[in-house]
Amino acid sequence: MSLNGSIRVPSDKSITHRALVFGMMASGTTRIRRPLLGADCRSTLDAIRLLGADVTEREDELIIKGVESPRPARLDCGNSGTTMRLLIGLLAGYDGTFELVGDKSLSKRPMRRVNAPLREMGAHVTGDMAPLVIDGASLKPIDYTLPVASAQVKSAVLLAGLRAEGTTIVREPVLCRDHTERMLPLFGANLSVQKTEMGRVIRVEPSRLTGATIDVPADPSSAAFFWAGAAIIPNSSVTTTDVCLNETRIGFLRTLERMGADVTISNERTVGEEMIGDVTVTTSTLVGTTVEKDMIPAQIDELPLFALVASQASSPSVVKDAAELRVKETDRIDVVVSELSKLGVDITATEDGFIVKPSRLHGGSVSTYGDHRLSMMLQIASLVTDETIQIEGLEASDVSYPRFREDLQQIQRDIK
Ligand code: S3P
Question: How does residue 416 score in pLDDT terms, banded at 50, 70 and 90?
Protein backbone atom coordinates (compact mmCIF):
# COMPACT_ATOMS: atom_id res chain seq x y z
CA MET A 1 0.00 0.00 0.00
CA SER A 2 1.34 3.41 -0.93
CA LEU A 3 -0.05 6.88 -1.62
CA ASN A 4 0.36 8.26 -5.10
CA GLY A 5 -1.28 11.04 -7.03
CA SER A 6 -2.31 14.65 -6.91
CA ILE A 7 -5.02 16.19 -4.77
CA ARG A 8 -6.51 19.60 -4.02
CA VAL A 9 -7.47 19.31 -0.36
CA PRO A 10 -10.40 21.41 0.96
CA SER A 11 -9.95 25.12 1.48
CA ASP A 12 -8.44 26.81 4.46
CA LYS A 13 -10.45 26.84 7.67
CA SER A 14 -8.84 29.91 9.25
CA ILE A 15 -9.22 32.01 6.10
CA THR A 16 -12.86 30.94 5.53
CA HIS A 17 -13.84 31.83 9.13
CA ARG A 18 -12.31 35.28 8.77
CA ALA A 19 -13.84 36.02 5.37
CA LEU A 20 -17.28 35.11 6.79
CA VAL A 21 -16.93 37.31 9.85
CA PHE A 22 -15.48 40.30 7.98
CA GLY A 23 -18.17 39.89 5.30
CA MET A 24 -20.84 40.13 7.98
CA MET A 25 -19.44 43.45 9.25
CA ALA A 26 -18.86 44.91 5.79
CA SER A 27 -21.23 47.10 3.84
CA GLY A 28 -21.95 45.82 0.33
CA THR A 29 -21.19 42.40 -1.08
CA THR A 30 -18.46 39.95 -0.13
CA ARG A 31 -17.68 36.96 -2.31
CA ILE A 32 -15.85 33.97 -0.88
CA ARG A 33 -14.61 31.72 -3.66
CA ARG A 34 -13.97 28.05 -2.81
CA PRO A 35 -14.86 28.38 0.88
CA LEU A 36 -14.43 25.47 3.29
CA LEU A 37 -17.84 24.22 4.35
CA GLY A 38 -16.82 21.79 7.08
CA ALA A 39 -18.72 21.76 10.36
CA ASP A 40 -16.57 24.46 12.02
CA CYS A 41 -17.02 27.00 9.23
CA ARG A 42 -20.73 26.07 9.07
CA SER A 43 -20.95 27.21 12.69
CA THR A 44 -19.60 30.62 11.68
CA LEU A 45 -21.85 30.75 8.61
CA ASP A 46 -24.97 29.93 10.66
CA ALA A 47 -23.94 32.52 13.27
CA ILE A 48 -23.55 35.39 10.81
CA ARG A 49 -26.93 34.50 9.27
CA LEU A 50 -28.58 34.67 12.70
CA LEU A 51 -26.90 38.02 13.26
CA GLY A 52 -28.60 39.34 10.12
CA ALA A 53 -26.13 38.79 7.25
CA ASP A 54 -27.70 37.59 4.02
CA VAL A 55 -25.70 34.60 2.72
CA THR A 56 -26.32 32.95 -0.65
CA GLU A 57 -24.65 29.59 -1.22
CA ARG A 58 -23.66 28.95 -4.83
CA GLU A 59 -21.53 26.10 -6.05
CA ASP A 60 -18.06 26.88 -4.74
CA GLU A 61 -18.97 30.44 -3.79
CA LEU A 62 -20.63 32.26 -0.91
CA ILE A 63 -22.12 35.68 -1.46
CA ILE A 64 -22.60 37.73 1.68
CA LYS A 65 -24.46 40.97 2.20
CA GLY A 66 -23.29 42.45 5.47
CA VAL A 67 -25.39 43.96 8.24
CA GLU A 68 -24.91 47.37 9.87
CA SER A 69 -26.05 46.34 13.37
CA PRO A 70 -26.17 42.65 14.19
CA ARG A 71 -29.41 41.33 15.67
CA PRO A 72 -29.33 40.04 19.26
CA ALA A 73 -29.04 36.26 19.01
CA ARG A 74 -28.13 32.97 20.65
CA LEU A 75 -25.27 31.55 18.61
CA ASP A 76 -24.19 27.90 18.66
CA CYS A 77 -20.46 27.71 17.91
CA GLY A 78 -20.50 23.89 17.90
CA ASN A 79 -16.96 22.52 18.21
CA SER A 80 -15.30 25.66 16.87
CA GLY A 81 -12.98 27.69 19.09
CA THR A 82 -12.25 30.07 16.21
CA THR A 83 -15.97 30.83 15.77
CA MET A 84 -16.44 31.58 19.45
CA ARG A 85 -13.29 33.67 19.93
CA LEU A 86 -13.74 35.73 16.77
CA LEU A 87 -17.40 36.36 17.61
CA ILE A 88 -16.60 37.59 21.12
CA GLY A 89 -14.24 40.21 19.65
CA LEU A 90 -16.66 41.07 16.87
CA LEU A 91 -19.77 41.49 19.05
CA ALA A 92 -18.20 43.20 22.08
CA GLY A 93 -18.57 46.64 20.49
CA TYR A 94 -22.10 46.35 19.06
CA ASP A 95 -25.36 47.23 20.85
CA GLY A 96 -27.38 44.24 21.98
CA THR A 97 -27.14 41.04 23.96
CA PHE A 98 -25.58 37.96 22.40
CA GLU A 99 -25.33 34.50 23.89
CA LEU A 100 -22.62 32.11 22.72
CA VAL A 101 -22.83 28.37 23.36
CA GLY A 102 -20.78 25.41 22.20
CA ASP A 103 -20.57 21.62 22.34
CA LYS A 104 -19.13 19.64 25.26
CA SER A 105 -15.52 20.10 24.13
CA LEU A 106 -15.81 23.83 23.39
CA SER A 107 -17.59 24.44 26.71
CA LYS A 108 -14.41 23.33 28.48
CA ARG A 109 -12.03 25.53 26.51
CA PRO A 110 -10.58 28.74 27.98
CA MET A 111 -12.20 32.00 26.88
CA ARG A 112 -10.62 34.22 29.52
CA ARG A 113 -7.62 34.72 27.24
CA VAL A 114 -9.98 36.65 24.93
CA ASN A 115 -12.25 38.14 27.58
CA ALA A 116 -9.41 39.65 29.64
CA PRO A 117 -8.11 42.12 26.99
CA LEU A 118 -11.67 42.83 25.83
CA ARG A 119 -12.75 43.68 29.37
CA GLU A 120 -9.79 46.07 29.53
CA MET A 121 -11.34 47.72 26.49
CA GLY A 122 -14.65 48.04 28.38
CA ALA A 123 -16.45 44.97 27.02
CA HIS A 124 -19.16 43.29 29.09
CA VAL A 125 -18.65 39.55 28.78
CA THR A 126 -20.08 37.17 31.37
CA GLY A 127 -18.50 33.75 31.78
CA ASP A 128 -14.98 32.59 30.99
CA MET A 129 -16.18 29.31 29.51
CA ALA A 130 -19.23 28.76 27.31
CA PRO A 131 -22.06 29.60 27.67
CA LEU A 132 -21.08 33.27 27.50
CA VAL A 133 -23.18 36.42 27.37
CA ILE A 134 -21.94 39.58 25.66
CA ASP A 135 -23.68 42.87 26.36
CA GLY A 136 -22.43 45.22 23.70
CA ALA A 137 -20.66 48.31 25.05
CA SER A 138 -18.63 51.22 23.73
CA LEU A 139 -14.97 50.26 23.67
CA LYS A 140 -11.77 52.13 24.35
CA PRO A 141 -8.51 51.18 22.65
CA ILE A 142 -5.73 49.25 24.41
CA ASP A 143 -2.06 48.55 23.91
CA TYR A 144 -1.92 44.79 24.43
CA THR A 145 1.01 42.37 24.44
CA LEU A 146 -0.17 38.83 23.69
CA PRO A 147 0.71 36.58 26.65
CA VAL A 148 0.03 33.44 24.55
CA ALA A 149 0.85 33.06 20.86
CA SER A 150 -2.80 32.78 19.81
CA ALA A 151 -4.14 34.03 16.50
CA GLN A 152 -7.65 33.77 17.88
CA VAL A 153 -6.89 36.15 20.75
CA LYS A 154 -5.01 38.51 18.43
CA SER A 155 -7.92 38.50 15.97
CA ALA A 156 -10.55 39.09 18.67
CA VAL A 157 -8.70 42.18 19.95
CA LEU A 158 -8.22 43.53 16.42
CA LEU A 159 -11.92 43.01 15.62
CA ALA A 160 -12.91 44.86 18.78
CA GLY A 161 -10.36 47.54 17.84
CA LEU A 162 -12.28 48.22 14.64
CA ARG A 163 -15.08 49.57 16.85
CA ALA A 164 -13.02 51.23 19.60
CA GLU A 165 -12.52 54.98 20.00
CA GLY A 166 -8.87 55.28 18.95
CA THR A 167 -5.83 53.25 17.93
CA THR A 168 -5.69 49.68 19.27
CA ILE A 169 -2.21 48.17 19.42
CA VAL A 170 -1.46 44.43 19.59
CA ARG A 171 2.14 43.39 20.25
CA GLU A 172 3.10 39.92 19.23
CA PRO A 173 6.40 38.67 20.67
CA VAL A 174 5.99 35.23 19.02
CA LEU A 175 4.55 35.24 15.52
CA CYS A 176 1.34 33.25 15.00
CA ARG A 177 -0.93 32.94 11.96
CA ASP A 178 -1.52 36.35 10.43
CA HIS A 179 -4.53 35.92 8.12
CA THR A 180 -6.52 38.58 9.99
CA GLU A 181 -3.87 41.25 9.45
CA ARG A 182 -3.47 40.27 5.80
CA MET A 183 -7.17 40.17 5.02
CA LEU A 184 -8.62 43.13 6.96
CA PRO A 185 -7.01 45.78 4.69
CA LEU A 186 -8.69 44.10 1.70
CA PHE A 187 -11.98 45.02 3.41
CA GLY A 188 -10.78 48.62 3.77
CA ALA A 189 -9.63 48.46 7.40
CA ASN A 190 -6.98 50.94 8.45
CA LEU A 191 -4.38 48.51 9.83
CA SER A 192 -0.59 48.49 9.81
CA VAL A 193 2.02 45.92 10.79
CA GLN A 194 5.49 46.86 11.93
CA LYS A 195 8.33 44.38 12.46
CA THR A 196 10.54 45.22 15.44
CA GLU A 197 13.25 43.45 17.44
CA MET A 198 10.62 42.60 20.05
CA GLY A 199 8.32 40.99 17.48
CA ARG A 200 5.50 42.49 15.46
CA VAL A 201 3.36 45.48 16.36
CA ILE A 202 -0.11 45.69 14.79
CA ARG A 203 -2.09 48.93 14.89
CA VAL A 204 -5.74 49.17 13.94
CA GLU A 205 -7.86 52.31 13.71
CA PRO A 206 -11.64 52.39 14.01
CA SER A 207 -12.73 51.44 10.50
CA ARG A 208 -15.86 50.67 8.52
CA LEU A 209 -15.41 47.62 6.32
CA THR A 210 -16.57 47.33 2.74
CA GLY A 211 -17.19 44.04 0.92
CA ALA A 212 -14.31 42.21 -0.78
CA THR A 213 -13.66 39.13 -2.89
CA ILE A 214 -11.60 36.40 -1.22
CA ASP A 215 -10.17 33.34 -2.97
CA VAL A 216 -9.55 30.68 -0.36
CA PRO A 217 -6.48 28.47 -0.97
CA ALA A 218 -6.22 24.83 0.11
CA ASP A 219 -5.61 24.31 3.82
CA PRO A 220 -2.01 23.36 4.71
CA SER A 221 -3.29 21.76 7.93
CA SER A 222 -5.37 19.36 5.80
CA ALA A 223 -2.64 18.84 3.18
CA ALA A 224 -0.32 17.91 6.06
CA PHE A 225 -1.96 14.47 6.39
CA PHE A 226 -1.01 13.62 2.81
CA TRP A 227 2.50 15.06 3.24
CA ALA A 228 2.95 12.89 6.33
CA GLY A 229 1.52 9.79 4.65
CA ALA A 230 3.73 10.25 1.59
CA ALA A 231 6.80 10.77 3.77
CA ILE A 232 6.39 7.62 5.88
CA ILE A 233 4.49 5.08 3.72
CA PRO A 234 7.02 3.35 1.42
CA ASN A 235 7.00 4.11 -2.33
CA SER A 236 4.66 7.09 -2.02
CA SER A 237 4.66 10.44 -3.77
CA VAL A 238 1.78 12.90 -3.37
CA THR A 239 1.27 16.39 -4.76
CA THR A 240 -1.17 18.71 -2.99
CA THR A 241 -2.12 21.65 -5.19
CA ASP A 242 -3.05 25.31 -4.44
CA VAL A 243 -1.90 25.10 -0.84
CA CYS A 244 -1.57 28.21 1.29
CA LEU A 245 2.20 28.64 1.80
CA ASN A 246 1.98 31.37 4.44
CA GLU A 247 5.07 30.76 6.63
CA THR A 248 2.95 31.12 9.79
CA ARG A 249 1.13 27.96 8.66
CA ILE A 250 3.70 25.59 7.15
CA GLY A 251 5.91 24.87 10.13
CA PHE A 252 5.13 21.16 9.75
CA LEU A 253 6.41 21.14 6.16
CA ARG A 254 9.60 22.84 7.36
CA THR A 255 9.90 20.20 10.09
CA LEU A 256 9.54 17.41 7.52
CA GLU A 257 12.31 19.04 5.45
CA ARG A 258 14.54 19.22 8.53
CA MET A 259 13.92 15.51 9.14
CA GLY A 260 15.21 14.79 5.64
CA ALA A 261 11.89 14.46 3.78
CA ASP A 262 11.94 14.85 0.02
CA VAL A 263 9.83 18.04 -0.44
CA THR A 264 9.39 20.06 -3.64
CA ILE A 265 7.41 23.29 -3.86
CA SER A 266 6.38 24.44 -7.34
CA ASN A 267 4.00 26.79 -9.13
CA GLU A 268 4.34 29.42 -6.39
CA ARG A 269 2.10 32.43 -6.87
CA THR A 270 0.25 35.10 -4.93
CA VAL A 271 -3.53 35.00 -4.70
CA GLY A 272 -5.13 37.94 -2.92
CA GLU A 273 -3.25 38.35 0.31
CA GLU A 274 -1.67 34.88 0.45
CA MET A 275 1.16 32.98 -1.26
CA ILE A 276 0.08 29.60 -2.65
CA GLY A 277 1.71 26.71 -4.53
CA ASP A 278 1.88 22.97 -5.13
CA VAL A 279 3.72 20.75 -2.66
CA THR A 280 5.08 17.30 -3.53
CA VAL A 281 6.33 14.94 -0.84
CA THR A 282 8.05 11.66 -1.74
CA THR A 283 9.00 8.86 0.65
CA SER A 284 12.46 9.09 2.18
CA THR A 285 14.35 8.11 5.32
CA LEU A 286 13.63 10.52 8.17
CA VAL A 287 15.72 11.43 11.20
CA GLY A 288 14.26 12.57 14.52
CA THR A 289 14.14 16.25 15.45
CA THR A 290 13.13 18.70 18.17
CA VAL A 291 10.19 21.06 17.74
CA GLU A 292 10.17 23.86 20.30
CA LYS A 293 9.86 27.57 21.17
CA ASP A 294 8.78 29.88 18.37
CA MET A 295 8.53 26.93 15.95
CA ILE A 296 5.38 25.78 17.75
CA PRO A 297 2.63 28.20 16.57
CA ALA A 298 3.25 27.55 12.85
CA GLN A 299 2.56 23.82 13.35
CA ILE A 300 0.43 23.69 16.48
CA ASP A 301 -2.43 21.84 14.75
CA GLU A 302 -0.03 19.37 13.12
CA LEU A 303 1.75 18.22 16.29
CA PRO A 304 -0.48 15.13 16.75
CA LEU A 305 0.52 14.15 13.21
CA PHE A 306 4.14 14.93 13.96
CA ALA A 307 4.01 12.34 16.76
CA LEU A 308 3.09 9.67 14.20
CA VAL A 309 5.75 10.79 11.70
CA ALA A 310 8.39 10.91 14.44
CA SER A 311 7.61 7.30 15.39
CA GLN A 312 8.74 6.27 11.89
CA ALA A 313 12.03 8.21 11.99
CA SER A 314 15.39 6.57 12.67
CA SER A 315 16.13 8.52 15.89
CA PRO A 316 14.08 10.04 18.75
CA SER A 317 12.14 13.31 18.53
CA VAL A 318 10.97 15.81 21.11
CA VAL A 319 8.17 18.38 21.24
CA LYS A 320 8.43 21.01 23.97
CA ASP A 321 6.94 24.44 24.78
CA ALA A 322 3.62 23.18 23.42
CA ALA A 323 1.40 23.26 26.53
CA GLU A 324 -1.24 24.89 24.29
CA LEU A 325 -1.93 21.39 23.00
CA ARG A 326 -3.67 20.70 26.30
CA VAL A 327 -6.43 23.27 25.59
CA LYS A 328 -7.34 22.28 22.04
CA GLU A 329 -10.44 20.25 21.01
CA THR A 330 -9.05 17.57 23.35
CA ASP A 331 -5.98 17.50 25.57
CA ARG A 332 -3.84 16.64 22.56
CA ILE A 333 -0.85 15.60 24.64
CA ASP A 334 -2.75 13.00 26.69
CA VAL A 335 -4.90 11.77 23.83
CA VAL A 336 -2.06 11.43 21.30
CA VAL A 337 0.11 9.61 23.82
CA SER A 338 -2.66 7.23 24.93
CA GLU A 339 -3.88 6.33 21.43
CA LEU A 340 -0.48 6.01 19.73
CA SER A 341 0.79 3.91 22.68
CA LYS A 342 -2.05 1.46 21.98
CA LEU A 343 -0.58 1.02 18.49
CA GLY A 344 2.92 0.24 19.73
CA VAL A 345 4.46 3.71 19.57
CA ASP A 346 7.09 4.43 22.21
CA ILE A 347 5.82 7.88 23.25
CA THR A 348 5.95 9.62 26.63
CA ALA A 349 3.99 12.69 27.67
CA THR A 350 5.70 15.65 29.29
CA GLU A 351 4.07 18.73 30.78
CA ASP A 352 4.40 20.70 27.55
CA GLY A 353 4.87 18.11 24.83
CA PHE A 354 6.09 14.55 24.27
CA ILE A 355 9.10 12.38 23.47
CA VAL A 356 8.78 9.84 20.65
CA LYS A 357 11.18 7.00 19.87
CA PRO A 358 11.42 4.97 16.65
CA SER A 359 8.69 2.31 16.82
CA ARG A 360 7.04 -0.47 14.85
CA LEU A 361 3.31 0.22 14.61
CA HIS A 362 0.85 -2.64 15.14
CA GLY A 363 -2.93 -3.01 15.01
CA GLY A 364 -5.34 -2.13 17.81
CA SER A 365 -8.51 -0.29 18.81
CA VAL A 366 -8.28 3.46 19.24
CA SER A 367 -10.60 6.43 19.66
CA THR A 368 -10.61 9.93 18.17
CA TYR A 369 -12.31 11.36 21.27
CA GLY A 370 -14.31 13.45 18.79
CA ASP A 371 -11.18 15.34 17.70
CA HIS A 372 -10.91 15.88 13.92
CA ARG A 373 -7.12 16.03 13.84
CA LEU A 374 -6.87 12.80 15.84
CA SER A 375 -9.26 11.09 13.45
CA MET A 376 -7.18 11.96 10.39
CA MET A 377 -3.86 11.18 12.07
CA LEU A 378 -5.14 7.73 13.11
CA GLN A 379 -6.41 7.06 9.57
CA ILE A 380 -2.88 7.74 8.26
CA ALA A 381 -1.50 5.49 11.04
CA SER A 382 -3.72 2.66 9.82
CA LEU A 383 -1.82 2.70 6.51
CA VAL A 384 1.53 2.28 8.20
CA THR A 385 0.82 -1.26 9.43
CA ASP A 386 -0.66 -4.31 7.67
CA GLU A 387 -2.53 -5.15 10.87
CA THR A 388 -6.04 -3.80 11.46
CA ILE A 389 -6.59 -0.56 13.35
CA GLN A 390 -10.15 0.04 14.51
CA ILE A 391 -10.93 3.73 14.95
CA GLU A 392 -13.92 4.82 16.97
CA GLY A 393 -15.38 8.23 16.03
CA LEU A 394 -13.94 8.59 12.50
CA GLU A 395 -16.65 11.09 11.56
CA ALA A 396 -14.92 13.73 13.72
CA SER A 397 -12.90 14.66 10.61
CA ASP A 398 -16.04 16.39 9.22
CA VAL A 399 -15.12 19.39 11.36
CA SER A 400 -12.37 20.45 8.94
CA TYR A 401 -12.27 17.83 6.16
CA PRO A 402 -15.64 16.21 5.38
CA ARG A 403 -14.40 13.92 2.58
CA PHE A 404 -11.12 12.89 4.12
CA ARG A 405 -11.78 9.15 4.05
CA GLU A 406 -12.87 9.21 0.39
CA ASP A 407 -9.90 11.38 -0.66
CA LEU A 408 -7.50 9.08 1.15
CA GLN A 409 -9.03 6.05 -0.56
CA GLN A 410 -8.83 7.83 -3.92
CA ILE A 411 -5.15 8.47 -3.58
CA GLN A 412 -4.57 4.83 -2.64
CA ARG A 413 -6.48 3.69 -5.70
CA ASP A 414 -4.34 5.85 -7.96
CA ILE A 415 -1.50 3.30 -7.79
CA LYS A 416 -3.50 0.35 -9.06
C1 S3P B 1 -6.69 29.31 14.63
C2 S3P B 1 -5.70 29.53 15.54
C3 S3P B 1 -5.07 28.47 16.33
C4 S3P B 1 -5.34 27.09 15.73
C5 S3P B 1 -6.77 26.91 15.34
C6 S3P B 1 -7.19 27.96 14.32
C7 S3P B 1 -7.26 30.47 13.92
O8 S3P B 1 -5.59 28.50 17.64
O9 S3P B 1 -4.97 26.08 16.65
O10 S3P B 1 -6.98 25.63 14.78
O11 S3P B 1 -7.93 30.28 12.87
O12 S3P B 1 -7.03 31.59 14.38
P13 S3P B 1 -5.00 29.52 18.77
O14 S3P B 1 -5.33 30.90 18.36
O15 S3P B 1 -5.73 29.13 20.02
O16 S3P B 1 -3.55 29.24 18.83
Answer: very low
State the Cα–Cα distance between residues 223 and 220, nearest whole angstrom: 5
pLDDT in tens, 98-137: 999 999 999 999 999 999 999 999 999 999 999 999 999 9
What are the strands of the beta sheet with 199-204, ordered from one edge? 143-145, 168-172, 199-204, 191-196
Amino acid at 241: T
Going from the Cα of 285 to the center of ligand 1, the distance in angstroms, rounded, reads: 31
CB atoms within 10 A of CB 323: 14
Our answer on whether the CB atom of 82 is closer than 6 Å to any ligand 1 atom is: yes
| Average predicted confidence (pLDDT) for the chain | 97
Q: In the 8-state DSSP scheme, what is residue 128?
A: S
Q: Calculate how far, in angstroms, residue 415's C-alpha sits from the geometric centre of ligand 1.
A: 35
Residue 356 pLDDT > 70: yes
Task: Return the CATH fold of 13-215.
Answer: UDP-n-acetylglucosamine1-carboxyvinyl-transferase; Chain (3.65.10)
Task: Respond yes or no: is residue 301 known to be catalytic.
Answer: yes
Q: Which of 170, 173, 234 is nearest to 205 (CA)?
A: 170
pLDDT the model gives residue 253: 99
Burial pattern 125-164, b for ≥16 Cβ within 10 A else e, equals: beeeebebebebbebebbebebeebbbbbbbbbbbbbbbb
Phi/psi for 84 (5° steps) reads: -65, -45
Coil vs helix vs strand at 164:
strand
**CATH architecture of residue range(s) 217-410:** Alpha-beta prism (3.65)
Evaluated on CA atoms 154, 128, 24, 270, the torsion sign reads positive
In the chain, where the domains are located: 13-215, 217-410
Angle at 65 between CA 63 and CA 70, to 5 degrees: 135
Q: What is the pLDDT of residues 195-251, one digit of tens each?
A: 999 999 999 999 999 999 999 999 999 999 999 999 999 999 999 999 999 999 999
pLDDT computed for residue 1 by the predictor: 84
Ligand 1 site-directed mutation target among 20, 22, 82, 372, most atoms within 8 Å of CB? 82
